[in-house]
Amino acid sequence: MKYILIILIFFSYNKLLSQGTKVGIKTATPRETLDVAGSMYTKKLYLRKPAQPQVSGGAYLAGNENSANIGTYNANSSLFYYLPITFTNVPKTGLEDYDTKISISEYVLVLHNYSITNKTGNTSVVLDNTSSNTRQGSPEFLVYRDYNTKTWHIKGRFTKSIFVDLSTPSNTSFNINMYLMAYRSIITKQDITDKTVNINSTDGSNRQYSIPLPSGF
């Protein structure tokens, strides 16, 4: 019986080789190198050669634990994007509301940093309170979801303060440089409830007031 099994395996292997470069499981007409017409279980799946971790493959494969969908992206279509954006001719009151047209269902947009310059790129920009005192307004440099447009919006301003160009006080136009990252939703976890951390009027150095992390962290 053992010899019969070996012979059957040998002929099956030769038959697979004779089919050319495409192998089908539960299909007589494979469309790719390996075409599985059904479910597949594996403990390990390599998307590129394990010995070459520094070499990017020709495609990416990503799944979302909150969904059964699997997305594939070629090397020219990354899972996340670095988006440095410069807004020019911004009025001295700042950027009130800018629609990026980036879908909130397909991407997560994150603001990493920002800077303000005059229209020539000089950083000699300060804030001036519009009232008689010298108090500075609260910064509002953020990205947020707009559920009416279903896109990400941007703000870039200081409340109750205006930009002032020290090098040219008469200048009323400024540049705002923002450094953003856009992540495809397929690699991000579903939204969690906003967290509140009470540091009890301390300076935050007391480590017992830790941020409550979601499960899995």
Q: How is this structure best described in words?
A:
- Among the domains are: 38 residues, no CATH class; 108 residues.
- About 2% of the residues have low confidence.
- A 3-stranded antiparallel beta sheet has the order 5-12-7, with no helix packed on it. A 3-stranded antiparallel beta sheet has the order 6-10-9, with no helix packed on it.
- By secondary structure, it is mostly beta strands.
- The chain contains 1 helix and 12 strands; from the N terminus they run αββββββββββββ.
What is the straight-line distance between the termini?
53 Å
Radius of gyration: 28 Å
Structural class: mainly beta
Low-confidence stretches: 63-67
Find the count of extended strands (DSSP E, 2+ residues). Answer: 12
- Taken as a percent bin, the fraction of beta residues is 35-45%
Report the order of strands and helices: HEEEEEEEEEEEE
Give the helix proportion (percent range). under 10%
Describe the main β-sheet briefly: 3 strands, antiparallel
Q: How do the strands line up in the largest sheet?
A: 5-12-7
**What's the average pLDDT?**
75
Helical element count? 1
State the shape: elongated
Offer a concise description of the structure.
With 217 residues, the chain is mostly beta strands.
Give descriptors for this structure.
217 residues; three-stranded antiparallel sheet; elongated
